[in-house]
Amino acid sequence: MDATPMRSTPGFRFVLVMSCLLLASCETLKAPGSTADWFARNSNKGHEREVQSYRTQWQTRRDRAAIRWLLASQIHNGLTPDDVSLRLGEVGTREQNTREFKREGDGFRVDDEFYRYGPDRQGEVYYLGFREGRLINFDAQVFADKHKS
What we know:
The chain has 149 residues and is of the alpha+beta class.
C-alpha cells in the first residue's frame, strides 16, 4: 500500500485548485461589469420603469388601480411621510380632525398623525397613520387584493 498522503495526489490537488477558483469567482459575481451586475442593473431598471408608469397613471389620471398597486408594492410600515410622498408621487395632506381614526380602536394613539392621499377618479381617499414620524398599522396586502379589481 502506498504511504503517500492523499493531499499530494494529483486528483486532490486538482479538486483543491478548482475549489479555490470557484470560491474566488463567487466574489467577482457582484463586481462592476460582471454579468450578474449587468443583469441586476437592468432588472432594476425594468422595475423602476414599471413603478414610474404606475406613478404617472396615478398623477395624471388619478387611476384607482395605479394608486392601489403603488400602495401594495411601494409602501410599508416604517416609512416617513416624505418617503411615502416620493413613492406615490404626491405630497400627502396632514389631517387635522383625526378623532374618528383614533376612536375606532385600530391601534392608534392620540398623538398619531394622519395624512390623506387622493382622491382617486372614483372619489376614494387613502389615509395613512404615522407615529413618531413613521408609518404604522399599514397592511399592503389589503391593496394587493384590491388593485386587481
